[in-house]
Structure formats: C-alpha cells, structure tokens
Amino acid sequence: MLKDMELMAVLPAKDIDRAKEFYRDKLGLEPAQTIENENLIYRCGKGTGFLLYRTDNAGSAKNTQMAWGVQDVEKEVEELRARGVVFEDYDMPGLKTENGIATMEGMGKGAWFVDSEGNILNISSLPA
C-alpha cells in the first residue's frame, strides 16, 4: 500500500524566515505552499518534496536527514559552493571526503552540508 504513495521528507526549522532565505538563496528553491505562516512545502523532481516546519528542536539530529540524487556530484558541489553552501569534511572509518566529496564503495559519490537550521543534507550519485 505505502510503496506506491508519494513520500515527503519533514525537516525542522527553528527560524522559518532564516530557513526560507537559505533554501532560496543557497539552494535556489521556493516554497510551493505555505501553511499557517510557519510551515513550508517545497516540491522537487518526480513528485518528491519536503515540509519545513517550525520547532525549537531543529538542529538536534546528527545524521543525514534528506538527500537529493544527482547526475554529477562534482558539478552540483561546484554550483552550490558558488552560491555560498559550505560542505562538510569527514574522516572516519568508511567515510572520508576529499574537497567535500566522498567516494563510497558500491554507492558512488556523495557530499554533505548543513542548512541554516542545523539539518544535515546530502547530494549523492543517482544509482546506475
């Protein structure tokens, strides 16, 4: 039943205005819908999207919360850096980045950044 339904990620934001500015200025995204001035729905490719909602709990997760599948990680990193996005560097067993990009065995490449609210976001190679 659920396998055929549209899926939407949900991200917390302590400051909706600051988050809206980050997603607009850094990622080039505009909300498709605003609900009660404190909840923003963004639409992305193939019917996907995410809800950004206001809560004081934002930024508490220490794991990847949302990811975009892209054709060319290096190109996307370059374009996002030009817009002011700062990519994380990791050096731990199984995950080491070089210039912000990790090559993961059997999974392609990936890069992580943190939004204005402390949410860890990712771009990764689309599966072959």
Q: Which features characterize this protein?
A:
Glyas_Bleomycin-R_OHBP_Dase, 2,3-Dihydroxybiphenyl 1,2-Dioxygenase, domain 1, six-stranded mixed beta sheet, Glyas_Fos-R_dOase_dom, VOC family protein, alpha+beta, VOC_core
Q: Could you characterize what this model shows?
A:
This protein is α+β, with helices and mostly antiparallel strands and 128 residues long. The chain has one domain: 2,3-Dihydroxybiphenyl 1,2-Dioxygenase, domain 1 (Roll), CATH 3.10.180.10. It has helices at residues 16-25, 73-82; strands spanning 8-13, 33-35, 39-43, 49-54, 64-70, 91-92, 95-98, 101-104, 108-114, 120-125. A six-stranded mixed beta sheet has the order 5-10-9-8-7-6, covered by helices on one side. A hairpin with a 2-residue loop joins strand 7 and strand 8. The model has no long low-confidence stretch (mean pLDDT 93). This is VOC family protein. Residues 5-126 form the VOC domain. It comes from Arthrobacter sedimenti.
User: What structural class is derived from the secondary structure elements?
Assistant: alpha+beta
Number of helices: 2
Task: Give the total of beta strands.
Answer: 10
Roughly how much helix do the residues carry, as a percent range?
10-25%
Let me know the largest β-sheet. 6 strands, mixed
Low-confidence spans? none
Report Rg.
15 Å
Q: How many domains is the backbone divided into?
A: 1
Protein name: VOC family protein
Pfam family, one: Glyoxalase
Domain VOC: 5-126
InterPro entries: Glyas_Bleomycin-R_OHBP_Dase (IPR029068), Glyas_Fos-R_dOase_dom (IPR004360), VOC_core (IPR037523)
